[in-house]
Structures are given as C-alpha cells and as structure tokens.
Amino acid sequence: MKSDRLLSILLLLQTRGRVPARELADRLEVSVRTVYRDIEALSAAGVPVYAERGRHGGIELLPGFRTDVTGLTADESRALFVLAAQGVHAALGLDAALGSALRKVMAALPAPHRPAAEVTSRRVLVDATRWRGGPRQAVDLDTLRDAVFTDRRLKLRYRHSGQSEDRTYTVDPYGLVAKAGVWYLVADRCGKPRLFRADRVRSATVLDAPARRRPGVELADAWEVLRRQIEERPGGLEVTVRVRRDRLGMFQRIAAGSLAGPPDDDGTGEWVTARLSYGIVREARQLLAFSDNVEVVSPPEVRAELAEAAAAVTRLYAGKAAPEGDGTSDADGSGVVGPVIPRSSAGGPG
C-alpha cells in the first residue's frame, strides 16, 4: 500500500506541480503527517522533492524532473483498454486523440502487461446505446463542447418535449453527460441545476462572460442531484397488473423504469402480478405495447384510459383496406390479407 501511495504522490506532483500537503492527504485518505513521511521516503530514494511551508506553500518536484515509470498493474492496464463506444469520443472530436493516447500508453506499459492489454481491447466492447433505439436526431455538440471546455456561459434556444415553441435560456454549464447513448448538458440556470437534452437544443451561442458556477460544485455533484430528482420523484399513481408468465422477462426489461418492486411470483400459474408507479394516468398507455400479455387489475381509471385508447386504435383501422405495396400477401391462398405482427418490438434479444 505504501509503494502505491508513493507512486500516486509522484504522479500527482508530476501532473499538478505544487500541491498543498492537506490536498494530498485528502486525496490519499491519510493524515498530513503521513504525507510528510512519504515525502521523506521519496527524497531518500533519490526523487528531487521538497516542501515549502506557509500560506502559499506546498510540495513540489524540482523543475524539469520527469519519470517514465507508469507503475500500472496488469488489471490497471486492462482497465485502460475497456472503452466506451467510439461514437462518444467522435461526438466530442476526440476519436483521433483517443487512438493516439492509447498507442502511447501501450508503448509505456511494462512489457509483461502489453499482451493482456491488447487482448482486452479486442475481447471487450462497451456499447452505450439501447437496443432498437431507432434513428435519433443529429446532435451538434461543437458549441456546447466549446462552452464547457472554455468555462463560458451559454445562450440556448431550446424546445421542451411536447411543446411546439422554443424557449431561450442563459445557462452556466458544468459539463456534458452521455447516458444510454443520449447526450445531456448539465448547467445552472439562475443558480439551480438544470438538465438539457442536446438533441433538443435548436441553437447555442457561447457568450464572452465566464460561467458562474456554484462554489465547490463539480459536474459529478450537479449530475447526481439531477439524476436523483428524475429517478426518485414520487410516482403518485400505483397500478396493479397481471402479466403472462412467458412474457414476464420482456415485461421487466421494458417497464423497468416504472416497476414499484419485484413481481409477486410463486412459480405457478399462467399469470404473475406486478405493481407499477406512474406520475399521471396517461403514462400508463405504455402498457398497450404489451397487447393482451398484460392486463391492468386496478385502479379503474387506468383500465378506462387503456380501453379508450384501444377503442381509438380500433376505430382508426376499422373498415380500412391495407394500402397497396405494404408488403402483405395472401400466400396461404385464403384471400385474407394481413401483416405479421411480432409479439415484441422492443428490448434486446431474449
């Protein structure tokens, strides 16, 4: 543990320059006294490190000193080569830089670890996009990225979901977050954290004024607050359903965000009872995607909502002939034309 700590101190000083002893202690989760003992150990090993006391003091390496020692273990080497989908880096204009950086890291790795790192890059792939997500609107991250990297305020023209008119906001960005293949801008508006989907930004302008972030708040902090607001907001409406057992796995995958707990499954019978939580009655229309594989038991207003929606669909298609060239056929010779509808059109392979 001490050798790892000494190496961490060395790499921090090499990267940051002068660092206060208290900051090193906080980062390494040790006391300030332990940090000074580690500095003495580095000095005894020939590392030109020194400490300056006082208000603006800190610990620093002599100018010009560098070390080529990476100190990476085999698992750390593998971890560097397990990377997210290339689209994430491409969207930020960092694809070429990433490839170049990995080549340099590979060259700097201890020889025994290189084969394992190379195999990892060919055997593990992280794809952040959801199954059958469908085509998404093109996202121009250039302006958002410039504001984030230069710490400038942003003026956004933004369209909220379900609205037909754009709204204008001046925001103070913390950074960009890619979640499940969707990019979000995390920013303060009037001193409070807000989340903006990048594909709903109609235009963005980087302002000359510096971003006015709340002191001590980083991107991860602001994101955590927003994430909790979304995931932990009260549903308000509890819906009890019964699900056909042979479709339970698909149901749990697709409705995972609305499930209020694990299904009541005793391992017998054709149907399994489950409970979901929604904000409003209309949100329960999600259940229409499961056709007759899911039935709402309660409350009555949700049953009525789904019955009304199903009736509207029936009226839409009643008495209408299939348009020509729709790919259907009466190959069975019955003269009845009808499309083949898969039992599920969402989720990944079962």
UniProtKB/TrEMBL annotation:
Can you say what this protein is called? Answer: Helix-turn-helix transcriptional regulator
Known SUPFAM superfamilies for this protein? Winged helix' DNA-binding domain
Residue ranges occupied by any HTH deoR-type domain in the UniProt entry? 2-61
Give the InterPro entries listed for this entry: CBASS_pafABC_assoc_protein (IPR051534), DeoR_HTH (IPR001034), HTH_11 (IPR013196), PafC-like (IPR028349), WCX_dom (IPR057727), WH-like_DNA-bd_sf (IPR036388), WH_DNA-bd_sf (IPR036390), WYL_dom (IPR026881)
Q: Which Pfam families match?
A: HTH_11, WCX, WYL
Q: Which UniProt keywords apply?
A: Transcription, Transcription regulation
Record keywords: Transcription regulation included? yes
- Per the record, which residues fall in region Disordered? 321-350
Q: Cross-referenced Gene3D superfamilies, in alphabetical order?
A: Winged helix-like DNA-binding domain superfamily/Winged helix DNA-binding domain
Identify the species of origin.
Streptomyces thermocoprophilus
Where is the signal peptide, in residue numbers?
Answer: none
